[in-house]
Design a protein that fits this description.
With about 80 residues, this protein is α/β, with parallel strands linked by helices. The protein has 2 helices and 4 strands.
Length: about 80
């Protein structure tokens, strides 16, 4: 299965996570690009607080068909749209 991938590591600056900058970058993303898609939130790629992954998944749950966490070969479904959506 092909996924659109969101890698939280792209929100790091020189390998460091800054909460305020993360929030600003998230606000600037166009979430519509994930409408109706299966999205993988890549996990364990860097030191990122767990709430940041949850924040991304919550944003995706409004547009994506499914949201998975992990990698392309080993992942867990954290959100699946119902047939009515």
């Amino acid at each position: 299965m092909a996924y659109s991938v969101v890698d939280p590591a792209v929100f790091l600056e020189d390998g460091t996570f800054f909460e305020d900058r993360f929030i600003e970058k998230i606000k600037g993303l166009t979430w519509e690009q994930y409408r109706g898609r299966s999205v993988l939130v890549r996990g364990c790629s860097a030191i990122i607080p767990p709430w940041a992954y949850m924040y991304i998944a919550a944003k995706l749950a409004h547009v994506a068909r499914t949201v998975r966490y992990g990698n392309e070969h080993d992942n867990v479904v954290v959100y699946r749209a119902t047939d009515g959506e």
